[in-house]
Amino acid sequence: MTDVADRATTGFRREFGAPPAGQWAAPGRVNLIGEHTDYNDGFVLPFALPLRTVAAADRQEGARWTVWSELSGETIDFGADEVDEPGRVAGWGAYVAGVVWALREAGHDVPGARLAITSDVPLGAGLSSSAALEAAVLTALVDLGGLDLPAERQPRLAQRAENHYVGAPTGIMDQSASIRCRDGHALFLDCRSEGVEHIPFDLRGAGLAMLVVDSHAPHRHADGEYAARRKSCEAGAERLGVPALRDVTVDQLDTALARLDDPETRRRVRHVVTEDQRVLDTVALLRAGRVREIGPLLTASHVSMRDDFEITVPEIDTAVEAALAAGALGARMTGGGFGGCVLALVEADAADPVADAVTAAYAEQGFRAPDHLTVLPAPGAVRLT
Ligand code: GLA
């Protein structure tokens, strides 16, 4: 298969009979640690993947957007009327129309455009293919129109597209990762202030590798469960009289838990508060160059997601257990949960044996065989040409 950027240009020429004015690429992400903390105003530490979505694009007359997607094989076309009424453009097109909507709503003079979209980010694997699509389209439109929207303000806008146009109540992590990550670094994001620090994450230098296992577990009720977790967290914060769970520290946790009568809310709160602390501890170790010591924090995060936040599934737990038994230094589910991918931090020469161990454990359980790849932190959204 040819390169994702070449395919976007070829598709653009074929669909629109001319070369594009440029190409904009935005990556998928994995989250190293800090799960379900973003919408609690907390901390996250994602890094960008070398898998990207590309938008080849050019301006067109008027307020019209014509978009070809390689994956669906269709070309859709919509104007300002459809955009201004959330729900009129559905399916994958909603992510594109949502970005146009959010820009217009924020008062930007969005240029009409033709776009050809290709992607290497697998769909439904929890690697943020939707944020990659939003970020590729957003950066293309911002550049084509010369809009005054610096990178640090773009994630919030892409998140609005997803929350209000697509209708998914997600936090700000995925869009921030796709837009703001740097090559060779993890992105330490304070989701309240939106301040970032780029933390060097030199796996190779530490003699390590990051294995990403796609569990292929079907996303069972993922949307409803995500929204339910968000509600529980908000209820917990309200009961504790704080603006968000970010405002409870681990030192205050026992006192806070004693004030909650509902055992389920207690578990949800405990996950978020301890997970924020694990992000801070991971950042401290990485800043000190102690990369291999983060393993136990990753595994503790998984246990917390499994037992307290209750967002893992058998395929995911099997992958984590098999990776750890085969010598991984740490392993955890990454992303929203109920399927998706597992990260395993391994010695550089252990990626294949650990992946084989996971595959063998899947066969034993009768699960569909997993896929895997090893990754290094890649750059965030960029203009390619
Ligand atoms: C999904 C959402 C993010 C975040 C994660 C869980 O990826 O899009 O905003 O909440 O789940 O950490």
Account of the 3D structure:
With 385 residues, this protein is α+β, with helices and mostly antiparallel strands. The protein has 2 domains: 2-201 and 379-383, Ribosomal Protein S5, domain 2 (2-Layer Sandwich); 204-375, GHMP kinase, C-terminal domain (Alpha-Beta Plaits), CATH 3.30.70. It is 41% helix and 21% strand. The protein contains 12 helices and 13 strands. It has helices spanning 4-16, 80-83, 93-105, 129-145, 154-166, 173-180, 222-240, 253-258, 263-287, 295-307, 314-325, 351-365; strands at 22-31, 43-44, 46-59, 64-69, 75-79, 113-119, 185-190, 196-200, 208-214, 330-334, 341-347, 371-375, 382-383. The strands form 3 sheets. It has a 6-stranded mixed sheet. A 4-stranded antiparallel sheet has the order 10-11-9-12. Helix 4 packs across helix 6 (173-180), helix 5 crosses helix 6 and helix 11 (314-325) packs across helix 12 (351-365). The longest helix has 25 residues, at 263-287. The protein starts with a helix and ends with a strand. 52% of the residues are buried. The protein binds alpha-D-galactopyranose. Alpha-D-galactopyranose (GLA) binds next to helix 6. Residues 284-363 form the GHMP kinase C-terminal domain. It is found in: Cytoplasm. Substrate binds at residues 35-38, 226.
